[in-house]
Structures are given as structure tokens and as C-alpha cells.
Amino acid sequence: MSTLVIGASGLVGYEFYRQMGDAGEDKGEWHFTYNSKKTRDFLQLDATNADAVSEIVGELEPNLIILPAAYANVNGCETEKELARANNVGIVKNVLEAAGKSCRIVFFSTDYLFDGKKGPYDEAAKPNPINYYGKLKLECEQLLAASGNPHLIVRTTGVFGYEAQHKNFLYRVTENLGAGKTLELPNDQFANATYVRDLVSATLELLDMKKSGVYNVAGPEIFSKDALARVYAEFYGLDVSLIIGKPTSSFPSIAPRPMKGGLKTTKSEALGITVRKVREALADMKKRKRLDDSY
Known about the structure:
Elements: E1 2-5, H1 11-20, E2 29-34, E3 43-44, H2 50-60, E4 64-67, H3 74-79, H4 81-86, H5 89-98, E5 104-110, H6 132-147, E6 151-156, E7 159-160, H7 169-178, E8 183-186, E9 190-192, E10 194-195, H8 196-208, E11 213-216, E12 222-224, H9 225-235, E13 243-246, H10 266-269, H11 278-291
Parallel strand pairs: 1-2, 1-4, 2-3, 4-5, 5-6, 6-11, 7-10, 8-13
Antiparallel strand pairs: 9-12
């Protein structure tokens, strides 16, 4: 069994490396790619380059390809549509063209598939994306559904955890408040908060159970942006008074956002798959930081 994780430098991809990088022979061979220079045990790959994807897939002959690689800057997707398409739809197309029909594909999707009028959403809800990022993710899902490849689509949202690039919302909150800066955040955009360690563990469980199709994996709590920021601030002993909640209409934004978003997880919970609440996850992060110096 050979597994290829494309995009191992990001939040979700690196968590696969943390959990499976030294998994042992019983878990098969695991390979991880990075977009720029070679680092750690990663292979360099520009996944937007069809020839490069074809070459690495041909060399490794993976039975399973996991695809956390994506361009997820929601405003950037509106202003740089060509770049966004290449790094979302383009990557999926390149992988499908390079992989044999028996190769299993895992893809990570989002609650931004929906318009945010009646969330949270289950797997059967009809997509209606209101921004280009959501439209690209929907197109990726449709490509996988039509491909004939066995595939697993994991929809998630609000993912947080340790990340080398400090991109996720947790870092935005802690770094700004830690510097004594005021942080103005929407108080009317709602979604789950999902611990990356549990997201990856859940995905591995779904793979072990040979599941296919669409599964929602997300945290059990739904927060507004400002409320979640306060949970982060309280846990790290930061000044909660620096967080100011305002309606979305107060913020200049290029891309519209779903307001009442989030995901229902009844389907995955029925399989015994759970994600920890935010405070439990933060406590785990703190403990794990002491035990693991990979960050």
C-alpha cells in the first residue's frame, strides 16, 4: 500500500505527516509533497503542473492520494481567479489524469458550498455557493463524482491547530491580542470550529472503514467569529476586551460569506467518529506542544 499526500506543508497536510510520517510498515509507505524547496522528508511538487504530477504518480504508483492542497484565500479567489482555479480545480484534474481508475482519492471540501441561509448543513443539502472559492470546491467535488475513481470527500470548516505558516484563525487571534492590538471580528457569521488533529484522525478512520462518498467532519460547537476568538483568548490568558464584535456589513470584503454556515455531523458520529470541543482541543494542543517539537 502506497499513499501520497499532496500539500503536506499546510495545516491539514502537515497533520497527516505528524500522524503518519513514521507510522511503520503495517501502515504502508507514506509520501508527502511540498510546493517549494525540499524540506524534511517531503518531495518537491508543483501540483498545478500536470507533467510533474504525472511523473511523481508514475514513479510512486500510489493506491491512495490525499489532497489537502488548495488555494483557500476566499478574497484572493475572487481577485485571482486564474490562480485560484489552477490551485483547486487544476490540481484535482491533474491528479485524476495521472492516477489509474483504481487509485482512491481523498479530497477536503467546505461549508462554503452553501449560501449560509439555513445552516448548519448535512451531506444531502443542495449546494449553492455564493463566492468563487465555494464554486471551485463544488466543481472539484463534481469532478471526483464523475471520475469513476473510488473517492472520499471530507467536508469541514473552521480548522485550527499548530501550523508552520501561522495562517489559521487561532494564530490571527493570539498573535494580534498578544501584541496588544484590537481585533474587530464579525459577530453574525457562524460555523463549527474543528481541531485539525481530530479531522485527520477521523479521515484515517473513514479510510480504515473503506468509506466513500461525502462525510462531514467538524467540531461539535458552532460559534460566531468574535465568540470563538474570545474562547481562544480566554484559554491563553489574553485580553478579551480587545475583541470587538461587529456585523459583517461593517467590514469591507471582496467575497460574500455564508452567514449561518457550519456542518451537521450526524452521519460520521453514527460511525463513532467524534471531534473534540474547542477547549478540550486547545488543552490537547498545549500538552502536545510539550511532547512534540516538530513546530
